[in-house]
Amino acid sequence: MLGVALRLVSEPRAYSGDPYLATIESASGLLAAAVMTPPHPLQLFAEDDRDPEALGRVARGLLQGKWPVPAVLAREALAEAFAAIWREKTGEDWRTGMRQTVYELRRVVHPPSPPGEFRAAIPEDLELVRWWARGFHEDCFADGEHERAVASAEEKVRKGEIFLWTDGVPRSMAARTRPTWHGEAVGFVYTPPSERRKGFAAAVVARLSQRILDDGKDFCTLFANAANPTSNGIYQRIGYRAIGRVVDLHFSCRAEDRSAGTAG
User: Fold this and answer.
1) CA-wise closest residue to 251 among 41, 14, 43, 2
2) Quick check: do 2-100+246-257 and 108-238 share a fold?
């Protein structure tokens, strides 16, 4: 959330529409915060995962402003508590999307290096990066809306924020994203199927993480699909440790579409 908010400070038109930004405070301090950059999910934080007053105020603010809310992304208990309030107010049901593990790294454990080298993507790599951005988005989200990922990857190439592991030809990629004052995230981690299980992903993520630390950040963060043991294992072996888990709940599905284990 902080990375998204800070990007809006430097690039007010970074996202396709106007952002929603809200805090709920009391005399004792911050109770909840919400950020949404349509068409992306509402990101939600609360001190108390089940504070009906704070979450109700967020929901009322969204409804008063006539904001469409496609999904909510938060810790699971918090996401489900908000979704229940949203359903009560709108009649919209929800289905559970991806569960993600949140990782933090403060010291890189460098893996054995495969053949090749680490370098920044250049304009000549742009077409390949476009294809890999599509592959990344389809692997992670399978929602058919990969063009936003492609546009983001193109921008990152222009800014020097996408990095490749190359061995004659590019084998794997990763990007730096959402910088804050003390940390920065690693994202867009993608290796084409034919190049997987060869150490390329571990190499590019480790080198990029080290570069972020060398540039003065205290830590790196990374979000990984909790259902993918391969990627989670790679990140843990190079020094990332799990610090939490989030889930996204998608609204507007019909009640009869919900089933045990797939809905909140």
Assistant:
1) 41
2) yes
Contact present, 101 and 242 (Cβ < 8 Å): yes
The H-or-E segment that residue 2 falls in is helix 2-10
Give me the chain's average pLDDT, please. 91
DSSP codes joined into one string, 156-224:
HHHHT-EEEEEESEEEEEEEEE---SSEEEEEEEE--GGGTTSSHHHHHHHHHHHHHHHTT-SEEEEEE
**Third-level CATH fold of 2-100+246-257:** Aminopeptidase (3.40.630)
Taking the C-alpha atoms of residue 182 and residue 84, their distance in angstroms, rounded to an integer, is 35
pLDDT in tens, 7-61: 899 888 878 788 999 999 999 899 999 999 988 899 999 989 988 999 999 999 9
Q: What CATH superfamily is the domain 108-238?
A: Gcn5-related N-acetyltransferase (GNAT) (3.40.630.30)
**Rounded mean pLDDT of 166-179?**
96
pTM of the full predicted structure?
A: 0.88
**pLDDT tens for each residue of 76-135:** 999 999 999 999 999 999 999 999 999 999 999 999 999 999 999 999 999 999 999 998
- What does the buried/exposed string (b/e) look like for 94-125 if buried means 16 or more CB atoms within 10 Å of the residue's CB? bbbbbebbbbbbeebeebeebebebeebeeeb
Do residues 173 and 132 make contact, with C-beta atoms less than 8 angstroms apart?
A: yes
Q: Are strands 241-253 and 93-105 parallel, antiparallel or unpaired?
A: antiparallel
CA distances from 255 to 95, 225, 238 (A): 9, 26, 43
SS3 66: coil
Q: Are strands 42-46 and 169-177 parallel, antiparallel or unpaired?
A: unpaired
